[in-house]
Design goal:
The chain is built from 13 helices and eight strands. The protein is of the alpha/beta class and 320 residues long.
């Protein structure tokens, strides 16, 4: 809950009108992002050495943080069933490998995923609201969300209207997020900023604040359909916004970098980044996710190498 303290709450939340001018005034009052500082910080943290024990723990943690994803036009029920089997038991030959956090699919395949994940703690996430472009009416976005929730989706990944953002229609984005949040009912809402189309770090910071103010449970970098997708500097900007938001409101927001994260080395860099920026409270699947599928294969191969001392053959992991 937000504390009713004018010294703590962002000015927009203290403006009872929630007007366009109030939101713009607040966003324009945010400090600019130090581009050089952000990139230097990421470069410095990227050199951090992770020892064997810590790396083994980091690999298992990264596996538990994955949203195993299939978002292709040719997705079938059979592919989703196979993905769910992999989510439950990532390595069929090693029962000590943890399961992933969630399986992410299009909304029309939620019921299939839900059925095949029964008896597990793995969530079903659905992309909705006209993913990946977000260029549909609000009514269509709400119907898409409602359909996914009615099939049992635990999480909804919505995408913001980047056209509206570049036109400065920030309140429209805020209102749409709030409407989708209500349609989510008990499901968690992850708001995709599509940072590659926001162009600047300052825009990423503003979009992060809009999403968090509107009620997002997570903010997510990308759909994975636009390049560049997740990057360490962009993620750091989002993490810093989350940190400042918690200080201002006493509410913790999760974060999900998605797209382009493929190797164990990449994953370790993200884990270092979040620990050094937000701390231990975010080092769990409830607060941090990787939007990735190929990443899991590399984590499994690295895990087996650490255990057996040799890389497995190319047929060791499944092709997603």
């Amino acid at each position: 809950m937000l504390k009713d303290d004018p010294l703590v709450l962002p000015s927009f939340l203290r403006d009872t009108t929630n007007s366009d001018s109030a939101l713009k005034k607040f966003l324009n009052g945010l400090s600019g992002v130090d581009k050089v500082g952000v990139e230097e910080r990421v470069a410095k943290l990227g050199t951090r050495s992770i020892k064997t024990t810590a790396k083994a723990e980091g690999i298992d943690l990264a596996i538990r943080m994955i949203d195993l994803t299939t978002l292709e036009g040719m997705d079938t029920k059979g592919k989703v069933k196979s993905l769910c089997a992999k989510a439950r038991r990532p390595d069929p030959l090693d029962s000590t490998v943890p399961s992933v956090a969630a399986v992410c699919v299009y909304s029309d395949l939620v019921a299939v995923a839900k059925e095949n994940l029964q008896g597990t703690n793995i969530n079903v996430a659905a992309v909705a609201t006209g993913f990946p472009a977000g260029r549909v009416s609000l009514a269509a976005k709400l119907q898409d969300t409602a359909d996914a929730v009615s099939q049992g989706a635990d999480e909804i990944d919505m995408v913001i209207d980047r056209g509206a953002f570049h036109e400065g229609r920030f309140l429209d984005i805020y209102d749409q997020i709030q409407s989708v949040k209500r349609a989510c009912q008990a499901a968690h809402l992850k708001v995709i900023l599509e940072t590659g189309e926001l162009k600047t770090y300052d825009n990423v910071k503003k979009a992060s604040w809009i999403a968090m103010l509107a009620g997002a449970d997570f903010i997510k970098t990308s759909t994975g359909k636009v390049q560049p997708a997740a990057t360490l500097p962009v993620t750091l900007v989002m993490l810093q916004a989350i940190r400042d938001f918690e200080i201002a409101t006493h509410r913790r927001i999760g974060v999900k970098p998605a797209g382009g994260i493929k190797t164990t080395k990449d994953a370790m860099k993200y884990l270092v980044l979040i620990k050094e920026t937000l701390g231990e409270n975010w080092m769990n699947p409830n607060m941090f996710r990787f939007g990735a599928s190929s990443l899991l294969n590399d984590l499994l191969m690295q895990r087996r190498k650490m255990k057996n001392g040799a890389y497995s053959g190319p047929d060791y992991v499944t092709v997603d």
